[in-house]
């Protein structure tokens, strides 16, 4: 029996938007000290909209799937909309996650929010 939904398996096997954005406007990295998984999200911002987003994740299947789906949810959103993306949104877009894997979806929403914060901070300095 597979504890993951088909959507999770699809995003795990064919992750979208994997990689790095060399000229990213914002970068956010989070790790979970318990499982040791680490995720970095890169965003490109144009006219207050997330025009591109990529991720690098060293982690479990759920961490990879949640990063992948999160990039799809975030792309094209305004920064304010993207800031409101929660771990529950991430999980429901994957047709759910097993309870012990919910923290994996935290990583992706936290990393996205950090990337936005990073973008706002660097912009203030300019
Ligand atoms: Fe920790 Fe998935 S087991 S992120």
Describe this structure in words.
The protein is an alpha+beta fold and 126 residues long. The chain contains five helices and three strands. The protein has helices at residues 6-13, 61-74, 79-83, 87-93, 102-125, and strands at residues 26-31, 38-46, 49-58. A hairpin with a 6-residue loop joins strand 1 and strand 2 (38-46). It is globular and about 50 Å long. Bound molecules: FE2/S2 (inorganic) cluster. The site of FE2/S2 (inorganic) cluster has 11 residues, from helix 2 and helix 5.
Could you give the topology of this structure?
Elements: H1 6-13, E1 26-31, E2 38-46, E3 49-58, H2 61-74, H3 79-83, H4 87-93, H5 102-125
Antiparallel strand pairs: 1-2, 2-3
Helix pairs in contact: 1-2, 2-5, 4-5
Highlighted features:
single chain, 126 residues, alpha+beta, Sufe protein. Chain: A, 5 helices, 3 strands, globular, binds FE2/S2 (inorganic) cluster
Q: How many strand units?
A: 3
CATH topology: Sufe protein. Chain: A
Share of β-strand residues: 15-25%
The first-to-last residue Cα distance is 53 Å
Instruction: Count the DSSP helices.
Output: 5
What is the total domain count? 1
Examine the secondary-structure arrangement and name the CATH architecture: Alpha-Beta Complex
How would you state the average pLDDT, rounded? 95
- CATH class reads Alpha Beta
**What ligands can be seen in this structure?**
FE2/S2 (inorganic) cluster
Shape: globular
**Main sheet?**
3 strands, antiparallel
Q: What's the gyration radius in Å?
A: 14 Å
Elements, N to C (H/E)? HEEEHHHH
Order of strands across the biggest sheet?
Answer: 1-2-3
Structural class: alpha+beta
Helix content, binned percent: 40-55%
Unreliable spans are none
């Amino acid at each position: 029996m597979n504890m993951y939904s088909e959507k999770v398996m699809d995003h795990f096997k064919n992750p979208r938007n994997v990689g790095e954005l060399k000229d990213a406007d914002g970068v956010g990295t989070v790790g979970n000290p318990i499982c040791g998984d680490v995720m970095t999200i890169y965003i490109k911002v144009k006219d207050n909209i997330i025009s591109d987003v990529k991720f690098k994740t060293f982690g479990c299947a759920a961490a990879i799937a949640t990063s992948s789906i999160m990039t799809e949810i975030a792309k094209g959103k305004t920064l304010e909309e993207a800031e409101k993306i929660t771990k529950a949104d991430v999980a429901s877009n994957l047709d759910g996650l097993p309870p012990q894997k919910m923290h994996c979806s935290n990583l992706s929403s936290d990393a996205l929010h950090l990337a936005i914060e990073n973008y706002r901070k660097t912009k203030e300095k300019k």
